[in-house]
Amino acid sequence: MKHLLSINDLSESEAIAILDTAAELARVSDAPMKKLPTLRGRTIVNLFAEDSTRTRISFEAAAKRLSADVINFSAKGSSVSKGESLKDTAQTLQAMGADAVIIRHQASGAAHRLATSKWMSGTVINAGDGTHEHPSQALLDAYTLRKHLMQGAKNLQGLHVAIVGDILHSRVARSNVLLLSKLGATVSVAAPPTLLPVGIESWNAHVSYDFDELIPNVDAIMMLRVQNERMNELYFPNAREYSRYFGLNSDRVKRMKKDSIIMHPGPMNRGLEITADVADSARSVIIEQVSNGVSVRMAILYTLLTGEGIESGALA
């Protein structure tokens, strides 16, 4: 496997291998010396045409912990903001000797276009393309679920996960439905009808318009940010109305299963899709998702650029 563009690029066994490798590499993050020499001499470019904090910094930390050289390339202040095409940017990176490009782009399919063109020969990793996919986020979410709820199991067989909120504009939702179902979990999505994409019936997920109906029956609730920047029309009456029906608050948390957890890919609209007290509660693993993201992205880079994973116990 050379590229990671979509969850569909991974078989179940390949996804599990990345999660297992992440578990081994997590030991590096916990060690006094947070470095492995694995990618020394490799050059990795973070090509972010959309704003990002968590994903960009997470990939940068992951690459540096594997001793790679990292170049951060953002659209603002670069030739991209002057109208340079993706082709010209890619050819520039090729000339600089980039071994891998981690791309976030506002256009769905941009990562695939880059990977399948002849503009560059390096590895391409999709860090989010439009409203299409965000595979590394789904992998870190699966890692978090497995770590908290599966007690040593390799897959997610038997789990029921609810993904709630702005499904229409969420690349995270699409990648998570694909991966969680691939790993054996049952997935439900809940949103107002206006925030569900056309054709969602073909997704491998149960569709609900009643968030309260789902709450007592799921092992994890993944809240999604309302993506106001992608909305050019009115999708719900007002913020108060949205929170009333699809926001996670303390009253709803009381109806969750005893050991169930709360997730959010970030950034959060506190007070809209999730209240501040719930986001900071003991059930919340939102901050842990961020730290897990570094280990998972280390595993992605390790796997794609070396062609192998790490056997259990290799770093003991």
UniProtKB/TrEMBL annotation:
InterPro entries, sorted: Asp/Orn_carbamoyltranf_P-bd, Asp/Orn_carbamoylTrfase, Asp/Orn_carbamoylTrfase_sf, Asp_carbamoyltransf, Asp_carbamoyltransf_Asp/Orn-bd
Residue ranges occupied by any Aspartate/ornithine carbamoyltransferase Asp/Orn-binding domain in the UniProt entry: 157-303
Protein's UniProt keywords contain RNA-binding: no
Cellular component GO terms, alphabetical: cytosol
Classification via Pfam families: OTCace, OTCace_N
Binding site for carbamoyl phosphate: R54, T55, R104, H134, Q137, G266, P267
UniProt xrefs under Gene3D superfamilies: Aspartate/ornithine carbamoyltransferase
An example Gene Ontology biological process: 'de novo' UMP biosynthetic process
Name listed for the protein in its UniProt record: Aspartate carbamoyltransferase
Pathway it works in: Pyrimidine metabolism; UMP biosynthesis via de novo pathway; (S)-dihydroorotate from bicarbonate: step 2/3
Family that this chain belongs to: Belongs to the aspartate/ornithine carbamoyltransferase superfamily. ATCase family.
Catalysed reactions listed for this entry: carbamoyl phosphate + L-aspartate = N-carbamoyl-L-aspartate + phosphate + H(+)
Example GO molecular function: amino acid binding
EC number assigned by the record: 2.1.3.2
Keywords (A to Z) from UniProt: Pyrimidine biosynthesis, Transferase
Domain Aspartate/ornithine carbamoyltransferase carbamoyl-P binding: residue ranges: 2-146
Function field: Catalyzes the condensation of carbamoyl phosphate and aspartate to form carbamoyl aspartate and inorganic phosphate, the committed step in the de novo pyrimidine nucleotide biosynthesis pathway.
SUBUNIT field: Heterododecamer (2C3:3R2) of six catalytic PyrB chains organized as two trimers (C3), and six regulatory PyrI chains organized as three dimers (R2).
Positions that bind L-aspartate: K82, R171, R225
